[in-house]
Structures are given as structure tokens and as C-alpha cells.
Amino acid sequence: MMRFARDFFARPTAAFGFAVFILILVIALAAPLIFARGPFTIVGMPLLAPGSPGLPAGSDVLGRDMAVGLAYGARISLLVGITSTLGALGIGVLLGAVAGYYGGVVDDLLMRITEFFQIIPTFVLLMVLVAFMQPSLASAVIGIALISWPQVARVVRGEFLSLREREFVQAARVLGLSDASIIFSQILPNAMSPIVVISSMMVGNAILTESALSFLGLGDPNLLSWGSMIGGSRSAMWVAWWTTVLPGLCIMVTVLSLNFIGDGLNDALNPRRRR
Amino acid sequence: MPLVQIRNLTVALPPGADRALAVEDVNLEICRNQIVCIVGESGSGKSLTGHAVMGLLPRGVSASGGSILFDGVDLLKEPPEAMRKRRGRDIAMIFQDPMAALNPVVAIGHQVTEQIRAHRAISETQALKQAADMLGQMGLKDVAQLLKAYPHQLSGGQRQRVMIAMALSLSPKLLIADEPTTALDVTTQAQILGLIKHMQAERDMSVLLITHDFGVVADMADAVAVMRHGRVVESGDTKTLLGRPAHVYTSDLIAAVPKGESRLVPLPAAEPVVKVEGLTKRFRRGGLFFRAPAITALDDVALTLCRGETLGIVGESGSGKSTLARCVIRLLDPDAGQVWLNGADIAHAKERELRPLRRRIQMVFQDPFSSLNPRQTVGDIITAGPRAHGEDAAEARARAADMLGLVGLLPECINRYPHEFSGGQRQRIGLARALMLKPDLLIADEPVSALDVTVQAQVLKLLDDVRRQMNLAMLFITHDMRVAAEICHRVMVMRHGRVVECGPTAEIFASPASDYTKALLAAIPGRRAL
Questions:
Q1: Is the dihedral of CA A99, A103, A105, A111 positive or negative?
Q2: Fewer CB near the last or first residue (10 Å), C or N of chain A?
Q3: What is the CB neighbour count within 10 angstroms for residue A158?
């Protein structure tokens, strides 16, 4: 574990990404402690520029404090991004691994199910799912997980298809290892690189998808996220750039830090790349 | 004056490589009308020397010193455009893997004519005629059909003939052949080497042949240079060098070449531990909507094997020898027949019944680079089997350290990862993994075919020692008759999924019953000279 941490932090980009992500996480978690009055309180005139007295990030179209909104928005955006990605990974890795490892009829069946999800326009499917479950945080998370697992399954299946032919997998079968332990302890660690890379992109995607849902009014109306901030401020985009640019920057920095973390994890998990 | 004079050639590797110079201070002469061999193990710099003459060094690698005089012109000082014109016209090259060297989506005819027309202003029809003529000279049949064919429709030998036809189509003065027969079967290898030799004599050209196989050297070369770690260790004319090698390394290399002489006497008859009867395997092709005729990979194969005995399964690619191994160990399910191991039928056991039986048969694989999980430490790799069969992890680890000692590795290796080891060491780890389960039958599927000849000799000796010590029955799969002779009590020759003949090694070598076996034995390179 110590060796792993040392390998991970030996990469400047990974250490930087990790630091930035932790900072965002701390701000998100501490938001109710720092800004007890909540993100919806109106504190002054609308569309005050950043740097106005008491408003480091300015105010939005309704005169709410942007800084407070960004801090609270981080809570929702991160929660949606991370939990829906974990959900999608859970489904996608399992189905992809099983399809790729067993092949044949199992593969045909699971891939037809996967394709069923892939041929429907995903965002339309998501809207139907969320509307069906009533718009709420939970329905957004479940909906996003349900539309994003097929690409994980595809990638994992592809990796498994090629890895299962490798001689070390045959050796594991010859040794009498069970299928579950071959899948999870022999093959999966070797398939981690693409999984880590797509999951860091999926977190970003999920944050953006949640924004789109909020924008369409299918987000949880009682919660503020970076996406709903952008959606709510679009009318002021040309007169008050900060109302859309700042939440957008937050999304970008978060996704970037996750990508750096993903790359670092990928390298640190690979014995060949260790220093 | 010799055609090519390589003087003090030095090729630098990019910083961070495992050594600074790939080729160091190499001197070599290729006379007109001569075949010169560079022989060496992997990493000796033999290929880079050939590529330097061709002016095709990989990116980041460059000739940093010396000269390569070709007809008196220094190729290292030639401008790129002049060098491009020389390639194909003056110097041509053929490679180890003709499949990779041919463009898979372009018909053969077009690939050959493209080469000719790049250098000569002639029409497509004329070029096609020339191409057909060249392919005919290479001993290829049905040339008209062949011109329209794509590379994947040809056999390995045919592809290499096409490559040679392309290389010779502009009558170069020098042909560089980089391990041209390493990927081919032994009988095909003999034919291709014969073709190269014939063409060389007929066209008065020089050949630089790069090889790892002293057998090939003995059959082909007029002069030899032995390379090691980027330097020429010894060079001279073939007879002298093979007969009286001056350098220890050369004599070690020659000594390591298996001689194709049987060393083991057959064991006295005993109760067999493994008995295979009527084993048959068909591969069905096609998918849901399309069914192609099945291919019979194994057809009614039978064998027996006693404790402490090694049976060699010899055959060319497609003979079914690997399928046999995989059916015996149940990586594949046979369609018919039985595999008896100590009275239990492996061939028909259900997966659940099979798992406890698995430890009785273990396998050493061919590819040292893919047979070990790159993400696990050596300790985890070799204790995985015992742990899966319920052995205590600490106990297994203690045994693993001993086992590493047995296969000739240091116990400290247990915490290291596979990429830190060489090919030969990895094969030792693979062997340790198999032996940890104390099997009755060890299947070795081409365990030394990816190794250098000196390492190959060490691993063969280790396998034989282990077989003796643990009283193992061993099924040794190989395409190389010489290797089989070295380690097997008995040999079984296979072709097209059937057993051609089976008997004590010495008998098969001395008086083969079938023409096929005779052809295999005759094709062994350097059999008379070494």
C-alpha cells in the first residue's frame, strides 16, 4: 500500500489532480458549515460582478451568492458523477466480463441486451426513465447509471476477449482456479487501464448529463448543482459571463483532476511502469 | 574488392536503453557471389547491422560511426533520396514474418508490379508479365491465380517465396535476409533456404543472411560472423569456424545446438500412467447463420505414457499436436475418445469433477511473455494453484521458495514481477508453477521454441532433471526434431491430426518407417555438418 502511494504520488500530474480533487471534495463537504444560510438565499442585487463587496464570485440572475452556489453545487455534481459512475461500472464490468470470458451464447445474449440500450438515443431514454421515477437526485443517479453502462460493458468485453486467450489465463484454468477467481483476480487487473480511463471520463460525462437534466427541469428542484446553475443563468450569458463560466470551469477542473488521477492510478497499478 | 565492406560500424541506441551501443565497432566483408551469415542470440545486434546496411534503422537509432562501403560508396553518407533508389535496385531485403511484410489488402500481383514500376518505367502489363515470370522462377504454381490472390490466402512458405520474388525482381547485387525461415515449418524452411541458395548462385548476387541457427549457417554460409552484445566475437569462413571455433562463445553456441542424436534409452515396459484412446476433435466454423464444414484437428489419436517417461509429439504447424495437448489437459473438450489418468477419465469429467483432477496434469506454455500474469508477483503466480486447492497460503509460500530453488532461481525472486525476468527465467517460473501441484503428468507445449539456443539447452536440461527427480510422465510438444531427440524417450510423429508413426527416439531417427518422417529428418538444417 505504501509502495502504491509512493508510485502514485511520484507523478506530478497525479499528485496535482489528487490535491485539486481533495480540495473540491473538502469544499463540497464543508459547504453547510461555511455557508450556513444555504445557496438559495438572496444576498443582494442580481448580476454583480465577481469581486463586489462580500461577493468574491459575484451574484447570479436572482441575486444569490455565486460562491455559495458553487460550493453547494459541488456536492450534488460530485455525488451524481461518482455514484452514477460506480453504478455503471458495477453493471458494465460484470456483464462485460461474463460476456467476454464465457463467449458463445452467453456473449450473444448479453451483447444483444447491451445493444438494446445502445440503439436507443440515450438522452431520450434518460428523460423517460427520470420522468417515470419522478425527478429527484436518486432518479438522476439511477438513470445516468442505466444509460452509461453499455460502453463499459463493450470495453470490458473486448479486453476479456483478448485476455482470455493469453496463456496465463489458460495456465490458471489448468491450475484448477474457479471461473470467478480467474475473472476477478487474473483477468480483471489486466483490464484495469481502459476501465480506469473511461471511468474518469464517465464522471465528467455524468456531471454534464446531470446538468442537461437540470437544464430541462428534470433535476431535483430543491437542490442546486453546477449544471442547474448553468441552465438557470443561460439568459444572462452575454451580460454576466461569470454566471455560466464559473460553474463551467468548476466542471472542467473536476473532470481534469479526475483524468489526472485516472492516469496516475493506471500507471501505479501497472508493475511495468513503476519507477 | 568485396561488394560490401563494413568498417568499424557503431550504432547508438537512444538514451535509457539497456546499453549505449547496439552495434559496436563491427567489421565485416561480403564478397561478390557469396553468402555471409551473421549469427547470434537475441539482442546481439545482428538484425540492426543488417538494417544499417539497408539504411532502415528504427526511429531514434542511428549509425554513429564507421562506414558501410557498397561498391566503394559509403552508404552512411548517401543522401536519403539516393538511398531510397538503391533499396530494391541494389540492395533488397526479406523479413522473418512475410505476413507482416505483405500488405494484407492488396493483391499479390499488384504488390509485385508496384515494386518493379517504382524503379523502372514500364507499363503495368509488362510489369505483370515480369512478375509472373519471377513468381514462376520461385517455384510457385498457378501463377495467374496467385497474382490475383491476397496474402492471407497463401501459406507461409508461399508468402516467403513471393517476398523473395519481389526482392529479386530488380536483380539486386545484395539480398539481406533477416531470419527468413524462423516462422516457417522445418520442411518449408529447407525449401526456402534451398531457393535462396539456388537464386544466389544463378544470379551471381551476394546474400547477407541473419540467423540464430547454426544449422542454417552450416548449410548456407560461405563465411560467418558471430555476434554478441553488439560486437563481432569471431568471423571467418564457415568450415574453419565451425570446425575449429577460436572463441569460447562460438564453441558454446555450437555445443548448445541440439545434434538430433537420441540420448535417452527407452524405459522398460511398465503400467502406463496416462492412456489416450481414440481422441478426436473437430473445430466447427461459422456463426449463427453460416456453417462451414468442420475441420478435423485430431483424428483417432492414441498414446500411452509411463511414469518417468518423456514422449515427444512432433509435427509441423497444423498437425494437431497442440490440439492434442489441449484436449489431454481439457483446455479443449474432445469430441470423442478417452484420456485415462490413473484410471480416471479426464476427457468426459464434468467441470466440477475435473477441478480436483486438474492438479494431476500440469502444463508449461510456449510463450514466456504471455504465460505469466504481468500484474502478479512471482510468489502469487506460483502459489495460485496450491491456494486454489485449499493449501494454506503461508505454507504454499514456503514451498514456493524451495521450488524456485529447484528450478534454478533465487528465493528472493518471489516478490518480483514477471517483466523483471528474461525469457529463460520466465520459463523456469512457469515450470515452478506447474510443479507446485506435484502433478503426475507434465505437458510441455513448445517450451523452448521462443528461447535462444544456449538458454534452450539449459531449460531442456532442467526439464529432464525435474522429470527424473519427480518421476514425472512428460508429454513434450515440439516442431523441432533436434529438440525432441535431446529430451524424449519415445517420439510420436503427427500430420493432419493423425499419428504417422510412434516409437523409440533412436529407432525413429535411424530408420523412419514413413516418408513423411524421412522428409522431416532430411529437412533438419545442418544435420551433416554439425
A1: positive
A2: N
A3: 15
Single out the residue of B467, B463, B429, B471 nearest to residue B446, CA to CA. B463
ipTM of the complex: 0.81
Per-residue pLDDT tens over the stretch A94-136: 999 999 999 989 999 999 999 999 999 989 999 999 999 988 8
CB A47 within 8 A of CB A59: yes
Q: Return residues 337-356 of B near A (CB < 8 Å).
A: 355-356
Contact in structure between A79 and A143 (CB atoms under 8 Å): no
pTM for the whole thing?
0.85
**What are phi and psi for residue A38, nearest 5 degrees?**
85, 160
- For A74, residues 6+ apart whose C-beta sits below 8 A from its C-beta are A24, A27, A28, A31, A226, A250, A254
Nearest CA in chain B to A165: B370
Mean pLDDT of B117-139: 89
Pairing of strands B223-228, B35-40: parallel
Partner residue opposite B331 with nearest CB, options A168, A173, A178: A173
Quickly list H helices, B7-105: 46-54, 80-89, 98-101
Domains contained in chain B, CATH given = 1-90+174-256 (3.40.50.300), 98-171 (no CATH), 372-437 (no CATH)
Task: Please report, for residues A60, A139, A212, A221, the alpha-carbon distance to residue A215 in angstroms, rounded to integers and kept in the order given.
Answer: 16, 15, 5, 11
- For cell 494454506, name the residue: B392
Torsion of CA B231, B237, B241, B247, to 10 degrees: -30
- B258-289 tens-digit pLDDT: 877 777 878 887 888 999 999 999 987 655 56
pLDDT tens figures, B219-241:
999 999 999 999 999 999 999 99
Find chain B residues with C-beta within 8 A of A178's C-beta.
355, 388
